[in-house]
Amino acid sequence: MLLLKNLKQTQLQRCWQPLARFASGQRKFDYDLVVLGGGSGGLACAKEAVEYGARVLCFDYVTPTPAGTKWGVGGTCVNVGCIPKKLMHQASLLGEAVHEAVAYGWNVNDRDIKPNWQKLVKSVQNHIKSVNWVTRVDLRDKQVEYVNSLGYFVDAHTIEYKTKQGATKQLTAQNVVVAVGGRPRYPDIPGAKELGITSDDIFSYEKDPGQTLVVGAGYVGLECACFLKGLGYEPTVMVRSIVLRGFDRQMSELLAAMMTERGIKFLHTTIPTAVERLPNGRLLVNFTNTSNQTKGSEVYDTVLWAIGRKGLIDDLNLAAAGVQTRNDKIIVDGTEATSVPHIYAVGDIIYGRPELTPVAILAGRLLARRLFAGSKQLMDYRDVATTVFTPLEYSCVGMSEEQAIETLGPENVEVFHGYYKPTEFFIPQKSVRHCYLKAVAEVGGEQKILGLHYMGPVAGEVIQGFAAALKSGLTVNTLLNTVGIHPTTAEEFTRLSITKRSGRDPTPASCCS
Ligand code: FAD
Ligand code: NDP
Fold this sequence. Notes:
By secondary structure, the chain is α/β, with parallel strands linked by helices. Helices cover 33% and strands 23% of the residues.
């Protein structure tokens, strides 16, 4: 019965768009929806829209990097972002695990272990190619038309593109979703583009990266530096101002301290001024320390720019459509509509929203449902959980301590915190110095939890479930009355008893009391 009901509902939803089209008279446009950009947000939106009977076409085109790197359909996450990054993160954690295995009694030789960079890159790229292939098959099966070209506006309803044969074609769309994402920035200094690479190149880089200068201390810089270190290379991170701007300061400093303990070098308050190639092929980087104006230089094998990303608006000819922008991004309202009502934007290209894959995907899906299935549900950009994939990962959801204090005032914020000792760290005697977590809560009322922060193993897996709880109105009382799963590190959230205000020592005495 339930199956029948669901079936009927699905069939009804599939009829929605053709019926609406019929009711509104003749077909005025070639497509109900054209999506510019086949990455996380664009593909999610396109695939959802066809579920409701919409005629959908999706453009995806990758302009090669200055170093010549290019990739297939699927956007940043699949090709040069989350997926290859997570695989390299895993590769680096496995190197650490080999040493731990010896302490656990495995009869393996952990001396002088070295990764084979080329083999790792090949494995990662093979996986990506299989995802590209599955994506194309999926689009074909779902009947989303896919065009591997750069699309741009001629007017608010007309998109132009060049075919592989070089012919110029135009098509019209009732609705357009711009989901073109962004690409890494390069600093405006001599040698930057010619000699440096970015995250767009590193995951398919044929050469051993060797001693690497990573410029930038955001997500990309820290994650790349960490997997390179774990793989045995010697990264240095150049920090312009502070590490992980926008995150909880205590957690960010703890993360930097954890990286330093693992041997990653930091050049603080430093900016690069030029890069040149030496006769021996290595790269000489000149830089300035901005706090004391001293100049310096150092030689590296690879320079990786991780200084943020630029929205890909330049090729879109947005002026022809009348779409308003700010700082290389598109301005949208709460319905993801741009300044032109039938043109929408989702994902990284939106001004002032988190640049994360699940954000792009959910926003894309919800938009398709509103456009073609009569839904009213809006994307909620608040309390989005996120993880920095460093060897001890840092994951968080909700407010930082600073944000809570700024919003409510210091007297209205209670911070519960504690260090902890993961059971599995004891035998290999791993450092527990940076295993720390905190819950930022309201002082009064039901002590609603405003933010959760965790640094330790598999932080992303730990915080994901707590993110749902926080969105459901989690309170301190509920958290502390939740029975933990022992022995896990996630259970530490249920054991938080010390407030910062109390001044008590947050270091644990034992694991099980
Ligand atoms: P994209 O995925 O960038 O897709 C846009 C697509 O449109 C691209 O293929 C682009 O080439 C194409 N395009 C551009 N202009 C045009 C045009 N005019 N016509 C046709 N096609 C066009 N997020 C996470 O949640 N977790 C992570 O662990 C994570 N790790 C990351 C690691 C790195 C190194 C990077 C760089 C990013 C990471 N991100 C992560 C962020 C995540 O990748 C992005 O938020 C996400 O990919 C954004 O999706 P999107 O659809 O907005 O854009
Ligand atoms: P960010 O904007 O997060 O960080 C850029 C870094 O580069 C900052 O430290 C910034 O310093 C520095 N910087 C900027 N300009 C210069 C310059 N001219 N010279 C030297 N340093 C400079 O960008 P990322 O590229 O790291 O990440 C982009 C986005 O991708 C993130 O916001 C995130 O949403 C997404 N992402 C998500 C990941 C995840 O979920 N795990 C992983 C990777 C990326 P300053 O603070 O002084 O401005």
